[in-house]
Amino acid sequence: MVNVMGTAYSPIPELNLLKEFHDGPGKAGFADGFEMYEYGRRDAGLVEWLDMTDTPELRARLDRLVPFAQATGSGSFYALWRCDDRADLATLPVVLFGDEGDLDVVASGLRDLFRLLAIDHEWYLPDWEWDEEEEHSVGHGEYLAWLEERFGLTAPEDADLIIDGARDAYGLRFMDWLLEFCPEYVVDALRENLDE
Questions:
Q1: Nearest to residue 64, comparing CAs of 178, 171, 193, 182?
Q2: To bridge 139 with a disulfide, which of 26, 35, 85, 121 should be the other Cys (CB 3.0-4.6 Å)?
Q3: C-beta of residue 71 within 8 angstroms of C-beta of residue 122
Q4: Contact of 188 with 181, CB cutoff 8 Å
Q5: What is the pLDDT of residue 101?
Q6: pTM score, two decimals?
Q7: What's the confidence (pLDDT) of residue 131?
Q8: Nearest residue to 51 via CA among 101, 94, 96, 95
């Protein structure tokens, strides 16, 4: 995805492809609550979410988190966590910052998140009973076709396998990293998810 200034949306090809779909066929919405916004958006709410005073030191640490999309219709958002200096940024873990204090590592990389989005429910409930009053997002079918065509991926049968895998791989490391500079109560929701 190249914008009018001639620069890519992000340095991540997979995310650029999603942005292209998001702004094209997926413009009407393709996953419940999901909406992309400026990559690395500084005003995404991280400082406020962490309930900390905005300082240059905090901002320097928060540069390791790269917000890129709204996760729910109520203000939760996704961020990539630069847990190391790997070259393939698409394999960075995806963290969900919830509008009610939820905090979780939900995917071990963008492709896992793309699969979760294919469920078309903001809390990844694959067995959601769609009744006559609730329908899939308008662009859901096109998204499923795009996901299969671009990446050979489908919606997971069990979202918990993806989420649990991400928690196992990155949850404790993420919590330890946050505790280096955040108050302990900030990570309580993450700790509860890891203890499940």
A1: 178
A2: 26
A3: yes
A4: no
A5: 87
A6: 0.90
A7: 46
A8: 101
Mean pLDDT throughout 95-101? 90
The angle that helices 110-117 and 159-166 make with each other, rounded to 10 degrees, is 150
Q: How far apart are CA 42 and CA 113, in angstroms?
A: 22
Mean confidence (pLDDT) of the chain: 89
Q: What is the DSSP letter of 91?
A: G
pLDDT in tens, 2-29: 444 458 999 999 999 999 999 999 998 9
Burial (CB count within 10 angstroms: exposed 0-12, middle 13-18, buried 19+), residue 75? middle
Distance CA 69, CA 61 (A): 20
Alpha carbon separation from 22 to 43, 140, 174 (Å, rounded): 21, 11, 29
Q: Is 15 helix (H, G, I), strand (E, B) or coil?
A: helix
Place of tokens 């393939």: 88
- Three-state SS string over 69-82 comes to EECCCCCCEEEEEC
Is the pLDDT reported for residue 196 higher than 80?
no
Residue with tokens 């499940």: 196
